[in-house]
Each structure stands twice: as C-alpha cells, then as structure tokens.
Amino acid sequence: MHILLLAPHPFYQDRGTPIAVDLLLKALVKRGDRVDVLTYHEGDDRDYGPAVTIHRIHAPRFIHHIRPGFSLKKLLCDAIMAPEAMRLAHTRHYDCLHAVEESVFIARRISRRTGIPYVFDMDSSMPRQIADKLPFLSALLAPMVALERRAIRGAVAVVPMCDALADAAREAGAGFVEVLRDISLLPDNVEYNPGLGFRQATGITGPVALYIGNLEPYQGIDLLLESAARVAGGNHTLHVVIAGGRDDDIAHYRLITDQLGLGGRVHFLGPRPVAHMAHLFHDADILVSPRTQGENTPMKIYSYLDAGRPLVATRLATHTQVLNDAVALLAEPTPEAMANALIRLLEDKSLADRLARNARQLARRRYSREAFENSVNHLYEHVSGLV
C-alpha cells in the first residue's frame, strides 16, 4: 500500500508519540508498504530506506520548542500542515491516510474531497486532554467530543493505544478497532555502562526511585516530590532521580524541591536518550509513575515492566488497564499513599523481587515487538481489503 502518514508533532524526538510513530514506520516498511510522512519542521531526520519519504511543513522560525499536548504552537503548525497534506493527497496516489491524534480532522476533510480512506491513530482523548490542560475550555467539551466522535465514525479503522481508548472508540461508533499497544523499548543483552547511568555522575550510594519522562503537570511530579518528602520525614533514606524535562520545567521543580527540604535527595538529569534507558534502570532500585491525569497508558510503563525493577504507580485507569497488583505496587494518588508504597518496597525485598519478576514476564509475553507487528499487520490487512 501507499500511505500518507500525518504526524502532527516534532519528529523524530525521544518521547511518547514520536517513538510510537517510529515503531509504526518500521513495521510498515517490514510489511512492504510505501509511506510518505508529513510532520512538523522540528525533529531529527531518520533513514528508513527508500520506502519512506519525510516531508516537513514550512513553519515560521518563531514557532519552535513545541511541547507535548495542546498548545497555540501546535494549532499554528496544524493550520500549516492542512493545506500541505491536501496538496500531497491531490498530487500523489495514496491508498490510505494514517492520521495521528488531531491530524484526523485534516484526514477527514481530505477523505471527503478525494475519497481516500483514513485510519485514526488515537493516542489520547483530545477533548479530555484539552479540558484537563485548560480548564477554562471545559464549556467546549461537548462540541469537541461531538467532533471527535464524527472523526471516529468516518474512519475505516481506529487505532487506540490502550483499552480505555478502545472502549471510547467503540462507544462512539467505530466500525473497526485495532488496539496498537506500545512495547518495551529495552534491547536484549545490553552490557551495562556506568557512564550512561547516574550513580557514577551523582555519587549516590543509597536506594533510588527513578522517574523517566517529560515534566508536564499531568505526570504528577508534584505528587512524587511530596511523597519523597514524607519518606524522608520518616527517617528513610531514599534519593529521587528524574530523567527528562525541559530547562524551565526543571527549574520549576528544583524550586519545589528546595521548598520541601529535599535538597541533596532529588537529582535532575535532564533529557536522556532512549538508548540510555537500560543503564538508568540498572542504577535504580524502584521505578515510579506518579501520573495523575489522562486515560492513555504512558509509554514508559512497558519499558518499566521489562526493567527488572519493582514499580510504584498511581491506582488510576491510566495505569490499571496494563498494571495490576501482581506486577506493580499501586497506590492512591496521594502523597501519603505513594510514600507508604515506596517505604514498603524499601523494607520488603522479597515483595520487590516478586513484583519485578512478574512484571518482566508480563512484558516479554504481551508487549514485545512481535506482538506490535502482528497488530499492525492485522490492521492493514483489514484496510487493504477495503481499498
């Protein structure tokens, strides 16, 4: 098949949705498909061979450093992407449009004009994401939901990345749903390199809880820091290491760290490439996902499961559609509950070992690259039967 893939974000970057698109492109190339990717002007170029061509929008120079989630910058970039996508659709012969996140509205318009079917790659509930980030827009939630439902019903396939989104798509009237779960990004048999971990650079010798990811408010970093303060107040030794985040986010959370009296116990590494993840995990004792908002499962969870370290996560749908009490210590999203979970793992090594062992078995059984490729094949076998 010849596919136009709309990727409305910087590509490539080492974060959730761009990583998922990278995995998808590799799976499509393996299938023998040809793919044109239309994406933002920011990001690193990647070579997928002659089957993939990357097209970038022509955005003004003042639009830069585009963050995850809804923003004015993204709206401007999407407005620039729309006519460029239409031009590609009119000048090339595509069998299908694969629209990631909000680009589904662009794909729907193209489909109505050209008859090219589209796939809706649904990484989140966009209306809920917007309402969570900008509460003053909650009054617009109903019309935004109506627009999303229309896009779902018009797609030849909807591709949610978790069960909660799959249920929402079916309830909205999706004709075909294929859950395309994220997978562990850890390679097999990596030789540990202390220089790529964090203990050598920080000099930490005690137990460490590690968080990897961006520092957007929905990730629950405030909750993590307040929990760490309670652990410290109980005379337990625990360092928190945070890998990821922009400079302004790190500065914000450094201030909170100082206000909580955690100076010397919280360490900000800044952004680290995915290739360093295994080495960071090696240096950690506990992995944490304190997320407080959203329904989609964080991509990090799949690598956390595969890491051989116990995991503490909030007992919310964003986690519980993948995690259960056999593979993670789930806590209510309060500082006290999270602190108690961290303390429990510090004090009960047999529990920590059992959770880590069960988690790795789950990752290898359900969240492998082979399982991902099988889902992509099933999706496009369905789509190819309609074109």
Give an account of the 3D structure.
This protein is α/β, with parallel strands linked by helices and 387 residues long. It folds into 2 domains: 2-183 and 368-384, Glycogen Phosphorylase B (Rossmann fold, 3-Layer(aba) Sandwich), CATH 3.40.50; 194-366, Rossmann fold, CATH 3.40.50. Helices cover 44% and strands 15% of the residues. The chain is built from 15 helices and 12 strands. It has helices at residues 16-31, 72-91, 104-114, 126-133, 141-154, 163-171, 199-202, 221-233, 247-259, 277-283, 300-305, 317-320, 335-347, 349-366, 369-384; strands spanning 2-7, 34-39, 52-56, 96-100, 118-122, 157-160, 208-212, 239-243, 266-270, 286-289, 311-314, 329-331. It has a 6-stranded parallel beta sheet, with helices on both faces. The chain has a 6-stranded parallel beta sheet with strand order 9-8-7-10-11-12, with helices on both faces. The longest helix has 20 residues, at 72-91. The protein is globular. The model has no long low-confidence stretch (mean pLDDT 93).
How are the SSEs placed, and which strands pair?
Elements: E1 2-7, H1 16-31, E2 34-39, E3 52-56, H2 72-91, E4 96-100, H3 104-114, E5 118-122, H4 126-133, H5 141-154, E6 157-160, H6 163-171, H7 199-202, E7 208-212, H8 221-233, E8 239-243, H9 247-259, E9 266-270, H10 277-283, E10 286-289, H11 300-305, E11 311-314, H12 317-320, E12 329-331, H13 335-347, H14 349-366, H15 369-384
